[in-house]
Amino acid sequence: MAPGTDLKVTAESSGGISQILVVKSAEAARHPKLARLTMGLKGEGVNVSADGSGNLKAADASGRTVFHAPVPTMWDSGAEAAVPAPRPTGTPKFSRLARSAAPQQAGAADDRAKPASDSEGPGAHAKVAKLHTELGQGSVALTPDRSFLNDASTAYPVYIDPAWAPTNRGTQHWAWVQEAYPDTVNYDDYGDQYDPGVGYQRWQSRTGIERYYVQLDTSDLGDKSIKKASFNATQSYAADATCSNSYNVDLHSTEPLLSNITWRTQPRDWEVLRTTSMNSAGGPGCSGSTTRGEWDVRDHLAGNAWRGNVTYALFASNESKTSGNNSFKRFTRDKSKLPFFYIEYNRAPYTPWGLVTTPVPQNPSGPGHCGWIGATGYPGMGIGAWIGDPENQPNDAHFFVHDANGDALVHDSGWIGLTNGTHWVWAWPGNLSDGHTYYWKVQGGDGDMTSAWATSDCKFSIDTQPPSVPVVTSNEYPPSGTLPGSTKSIGQQGAFTLRSTDAHSGVVSYEWAFNSSIPVGGANTVTAGADGSASINLTPTTWGTNILRVQAVDKAGNRSQQQTYAFYVPDNPNAKTTLGDITGDERVDFIAPTAGGDLVVYPTAVDPSAAGVIASNKANSPGGAGWGPGTLTTHRGGNGIRIDDLWAWRDGQLKLYRNSLTQGGLEANGGLYYNASKALTVKRPPLVTCTVAATGDMCGSEYASNWSRVKQILAVGDARPEDGVTPFNDLLTIETDGTGSRLLLFQGTGATGTLADPIVLVLSNSGWEGLTLIAPGDATGDGLPDLWARDDNTGVIYQYANERGNPAALGDHTKRTQIGGGVKAVDQPVIGSSGDTSGDGVPDLWAKDSSHRLLTWNGIAENGKVVRFGDQHTMGDARISSAQWKLNEGTGTTAADLRGTNPLTLSATGATWADDTVAGTPGKVLDLAGGAAGGIAAGTGPAVDTTRSFTVSTWAKADALGGVVLSQPGTRSSGFILWPEGSDGTWRFAMSQKDDDTWTYDQTTTMNGAAKVTLGAWAQLTATYDATTGFLGLYVNGTLAGTGYHAKDKAWNATGPLTVGRYQYQGAPSSTFDGRVSNLAVYAHSTVPSSTGTKLISAITGAKCADGGNNRISIWDCNEISGGVAQKFQVTQDGLLKIAGKCVDIQGGGTVNGTPVIPWDCAPGAWNQTWLPTATSGFFNPVSGRCLDVPNGRTDNGTQLQIWDCNASNPQRWQTPGLTTPTGATG
User: Fold this and answer.
1) 1091, 1103, 1092, 1099: which is closest to 1187 by C-alpha?
2) Omega of the bond leading into 829 within 30 degrees of 0 (cis)
3) How many CB atoms lie within 10 A of CB 48?
4) Are 796 and 818 contacting, i.e. CB atoms less than 8 angstroms apart?
5) Rounded Cα distance, 1214 and 936, in Å
6) Residue 450: DSSP 8-state
C-alpha cells in the first residue's frame, strides 16, 4: 500500500466482494503506485470478459453470468456548497440579452440522496468519475482519472471502487410435492435423501408426478425498471441415461407458497411463463455433473407491481404417465446453488430538489407569488435544481415553464446538463411575455427512466419594460423657461409631485437627487402611493437654475429614464440694492453679447433663458458692427441715477450709452435699454492731466492722445473717494503700445460722459497681458472698490486690494492674492462680476461658458475680505429666444412678440382667450377650436430658418388627437410640424424633405413612454433640429421623449409665417388643433443632450460599462482605474462620442450588422464617428442606420461593441448619468 492510503475489503452476504481503496490526501494521490492499479484475477469454472465500456463479467461454462463488475468509479468527499454561478447560453428570443446571474444557495438534499461520502458510496454533493479498465491475462488494471485527483476542488479522502457483485437473488423458500405422497409436506426439506423432483417419477416403488415450487425475494424491485431477468435452477439428476438428450421444463407462475404445501394443497397455477429445454446431466450417462436451466421472466416481473416475493413452479412439459417418459429431473438442494434471479435493472433518478429561481423575484403580490423579474434580470434569468441518480449514472434534467393563466407550456428546455452522479443543472427560459405569471417544474432522467416532476412552489412574473419617464410638477417652482416663474425664492420650501405609470408590475418608488447625479445604489427614495405618484418637499439653498433628477422604479426593479426637472430659484427679494442694475428692478444684472451681435441683459432675480432680454441690438452697437468680438463693454452705475449707463469701446472710440429708463423709457427707445441715439462720445483727457502714480510725475509717451491703444475697459465705481465729495464712476483701461501693457485709471466727473485726471497705475511691459479685468466692488470690507483679474490661461482669479489714498494698489502685482481658480478662458470665455448677486453682502463671480450657460460662484469672505469662492452654480442657458409670445393677452386679436418683430394674429373664428393654470400659474391662454371652424394664430413671417439649427418650445393642452399645434409652411407643405399623433397617442415632431404634395416627413419615431399624450393635461413641448448632425429631438416636460434624423441635404427653407393651430398639406390648410397653447418661444440654436464626461452604464447590468481601453471599445466592469479615464465619455453636441482623446469610430467605415467600433483619431463631421442620442437611451449612427450594441448581450470583460439594427433592447441602452440637456429651451 502506498503511504496515505487504506484498502477496505468487504465480503458481502450475497457472495460479492468489494474492495475500496481510500486515498486520504492530494499528496498521497501523487504517489506513483496510484498511476495504475493492477489486481490479480482468478476464478474456478468461470471466464472473465470485458465490454467496450469497461464492464466486466464472469460467466460459467454454460455462458451464464455469475459475477459482474460495472465500470469502476471513484468519488470525492465534496460537501454541500453554494449553487454554482449560472453560465447563460442564450435563449431563442433573448439570446442577445443573456448575461451572468448571481449564484444562489442550494436547498437541502432529498433524503433519498446520500448526505456525505464514505466507503459505501458517494454523497449528494460528491464529484464522481470512472476509471479506465484494461483486462489482462489473469489480471485487471485500473487507471485513476489523474485530472480528477489533481483538481484543486477535489475534496479528500477519495474512494476508488473496483467492486464485484453476484448477479443472483436467492431463494427464500422452496417446496417439493409428490403425487405418490399426496399428504407429505416437503417445505424447505434439506433432510430427504432425494433432491426435489420434476416430472413423472416411474422408477421407485411409489410412482407419480413431482413438482418443484420456489419462493424468491422481489421486495426491492418496485422502483426498478427491469431490463433483463431470468429464473435459474441447477439440475442435479436426470432419469435419461443419455446425457445429451434434452427435455422441456416449464416455469409456472402460481399463488404464493405456503409452508404446509402438499400435493393436495398446491398453489393455484396462473400460467406457464416460459419453457426451457435441459439436457440430462446428472443421470446414469453423466453422473456427478450438473446443468443450469434459465427461464426468461423479464416480462412477468416488469409487468407486475411485485412486492415482497414471487412464487414460481417447475413442471415437466411432459407429465404423461407412460413407460417411455424419461423426462424426470431433480434440482439441487445445495444452499449455494438454490434457484435465483439474474436481473439487470435501472432505477429512476431522484426527484430533483433544491429548486431555485435566479435572480430572486422581488415584491411578491400574494400567496404562492414570489415576485417580479425585470429587464436586467430576465435575459440572464435561470431556473435550477439538484439532480442525481441512485447508481451515479449519467443523468440530466428537463425543465418546463408554464403560463399560470391557462397552463400553456411556454418553455421546454429539452434534456440538458448530462453528467455523472449528483450535480446542479441550470435552464434559461426564453419567450416569456411581460405581464404574465409563470410556474415551472423539472424532472431528472438517465436516458431510460425519468424521475417524478418537482414543481417550484414559487410563481414569478415578468416585466421587462421600464416605467414611463416621471412627470414632475410644482406650483411653487415651475420648470425653467416658464413665465412669470417661481412664486418663491431661495430658502423657501416647495412641493414637487412625481407621477409615472407602469403597465405591468406597477411603480413602487422613485429615486431622486437634488443638484447632483442619482447614484447607483443608495439614492434618495420616496415610496409611491397606490396611484403610482409621490411627493417630495425641497428647500433650495442656491439661486439660479436648480436640477431635480428623478427616476421611477417598478416592482420588477426596472428603472425609468431619468427626468431632469430644471427650475429657476430667484434670489432673496429683500437683498440690498447695489450698483449694477440695468433693468430698474433694484437687482444687479449681467450683460453678454450673443453670437448674432446683440447685447443681452440677464436679470439675476429670474430665469435668464426666460427673462433675458435684448438690451441693445446689433444695429445700435458702436458702428453697427455688433456687440460681440471687437466691442468692449462695462457698466457699474451712473451719475446721479440708480440704474447703469453702459460704456462701450470699438475701433478707437469710447462711448457712453445712457440707460433708456432715464431717457424717456423703453417704448420711446424701441424697447432697448441702450439706443445709439442716446450714446455720448467720450473724449480722452489731455496729456497734461495725466500723472504717473508711482512717481507723481506727469505722464509721457506711455500715455496716448486717443483711445486706440485700449484693450480692455472696466467701470469700477469711485476708486478715489473723498469725504464730502459726490462719488463718481471711474473707468479702468488696459492699454498697450506694442512694447508693454499698462493699467490706467480715469476718474469720473459730475458731467456725464466726461473723464478727467488719468493716472498711470502700473508701468509694466508684461504684467497685464493675458489678464481679464473684473469689477467686484468692495471685496475687502473697507468701502473701496477693489479689482479682480482672471489669468486667461490658468483660470486663476487674483484680487488687487484698493488702498485709501493709494490707488496705485489696484495695479500692484506684488500685493495681489489668489482667491480662485479653474475658470479658464477656453471654458468660460466671458467672465465678470456685478458685485453681490446672492444678497449676502459679499461680491460674487459670474461667467458664460462655451456651452452657453450662465454660471455663478458665491464669494466667501473672512474678516470682511473675499478669500475664496463657493461651488459653481448654473443660472441657466444664456441663449435667449429669438422670438417669444406669452399668449396671455386675454383681449384683442394680437399676441405680442416679446422681441417685437413677429406678432401673431388670431383668426376671426375659433381662436379666443381663456382662463387656465399653466405650471401652477393662473392666467390667460390661447384657446383653439378644432374641426372645420378651427382657429389659428399666425405671424407676419417665418420665425425660424428650417435649413439651420433651431428650437421651438411651447406649452400645449390637447383636447383631441390629430391636430397640429405648430408649423411653418412653405408653398405646398410645411417645413416642420408639431402635433399629437392620432394613431398611437404620442407627441411627434417632424420635418419635411421637400416642398411638394407628398407626405415625406422625417419624424421622432424612436420614442419612450414620455411621448404619450394625456388629453386635457398641459405638456411642455420642445422640438429641436440640429443642422450639423441631422438630430431631431422632442422633449416632453423636459424629458427627451422622441428622436429621429433629418439629413442636411433634405432640408429646405419654409418661408411662410409661423402658424399656431394647423399645418399646410398640398398647398391648403389642414389638421386644426383642438386645445390650448401658452408661452411659445423660438430659439436660433439646437437643443442636443451632451456631456463633458459620463459613464455609459449598460442596461444589461449596472455593473458593466463601455470602456475605451486596450485600443477597442468594449464592455468591462465599471471602475475608477486611473480616475476612470477609460470609461469617461464626452458626448458632444456636434455628434461625437469622445474617449481619452479619441473618438468612437465604426471600423473601416463599415455599415453592416456586426461591424466593430474602435477608438480613432477624431474627425468632426465624419459620418462613421457621428452618434446621436436616442430617446431609448441609445446612440444612433445615421448613415449606417444602426445603433451602438453589445454583441448578443454578452457582458464578458473585453467583448467588443458593434453596430446593429436598432431595436431598443438592453444591449443598446445605456445609462448616462452625466448626460445633460441645455435647460433654457426645455425647462
Assistant:
1) 1099
2) no
3) 17
4) yes
5) 41
6) B
Q: Out of 302-306, 437-441, 940-944, 1206-1210, pick the least confident.
A: 302-306
Q: Which CATH number fits domain 353-462: 2.20.110, 2.60.40, 2.60.120, 2.10.260?
A: 2.60.40
* Residue ranges, CATH 2.60.40.10, the chain: 493-569
- Domain over 883-1083 is classified CATH 1.10.3210.10: no
Dist. CA 217–CA 307, nearest whole Å:
9
Domain at 1091-1226, CATH class: mainly beta
Considering only residues 66 and 715, tell me which one the structure prediction assigns the higher pLDDT. Answer: 715
Q: Beta-strand (E) ranges in 239-392?
A: 247-254, 269-278, 291-296, 309-316, 329-331, 340-347, 353-358, 369-373, 382-387
Q: Which residue did the predictor score with more confidence, 414 or 748?
A: 414
Strand 691-692 and strand 755-764: the pairing is parallel
CA-CA-CA-CA dihedral for 362, 365, 366, 372, to nearest 10: -40
Instruction: Read off the pLDDT band of 541 (50, 70, 90).
Output: confident
Q: pLDDT digits over 574-609, tens only?
A: 554 456 788 887 777 888 888 889 998 877 666 665
| Nearest in space to 956 (alpha carbons), one of 1034, 1017, 885, 891 | 1017
d(CA 350, CA 347) in angstroms, rounded, equals: 9
Lowest pLDDT segment from 112-126, 138-152, 534-548, 880-894: 112-126
Angle at 452 between CA 447 and CA 456, to 5 degrees: 115
Domain with CATH 2.60.120.200 in the chain: 883-1083
Query: Angle CA(118)–CA(121)–CA(127) in degrees, nearest 5?
Result: 90
Q: What is the pTM of this model?
A: 0.64
* CA atoms of 1160 and 1144, how far apart (whole Å): 6
CATH of domain 493-569: 2.60.40.10
- 3-state DSSP assignment of residue 565: strand
Residue 992 has what pLDDT?
Answer: 98
Give the whole-angstrom CA distance, residue 967 versus residue 952.
Answer: 10
pLDDT of residue 437: 94
Task: Kindly calculate the radius of gyration of the chain based on its CA atoms and give it in whole angstroms.
Answer: 48
Tally of residues, the chain: 1227
Best CA proximity match to 1074, nearest among 910, 908, 906, 891:
910
d(CA 294, CA 277): 9
Q: Name the 3-class secondary structure at 688.
A: helix
At residue 207, what are phi and psi to the nearest 5 degrees? -100, 165
**Arithmetic mean of pLDDT over the chain:** 86
Rounded to 10 degrees, what is the CA torsion of 355, 356, 362, 364? 0
Q: In this structure, what is the dihedral angle of CA atoms 89, 93, 99, 103, given to the nearest 10 degrees?
A: -70
Q: What is the DSSP letter of 519?
A: P
Q: CATH 2.80.10.50 in the chain, residues?
A: 1091-1226
Q: Which amino acid is at 456?
A: S
Residue with cell 456725464: 752
The two most distant CA atoms of the chain are separated, in Å, by 171
Q: Are 349 and 110 in contact (CB under 8 A)?
A: no
State which CATH number among 3.30.420, 2.60.120, 3.30.70, 1.10.10 fits the domain covering 168-347: 2.60.120
Mean pLDDT on 213-233: 89
Q: How far apart are the first and last CA of the chain?
A: 85
- Residues 6 or more apart whose CB falls under 8 angstroms from that of 199 comprise 209, 210, 239, 247, 249, 315, 316, 318, 319, 325, 327, 328, 329
User: Is residue 867 a contact partner of residue 857, using CB atoms and an 8 Å limit?
Assistant: no
Contacts of 782 (CB under 8 A, 6+ apart): 802, 804, 864
The answer to whether the CB of 916 falls within 8 A of the CB of 1078 is yes
- Which amino acid appears at position 567 of this protein? F
Q: CB of 1155 within 8 A of CB of 1147?
A: yes
Q: What is the pLDDT of residue 94?
A: 26
**pLDDT greater than 80 at residue 758:** no
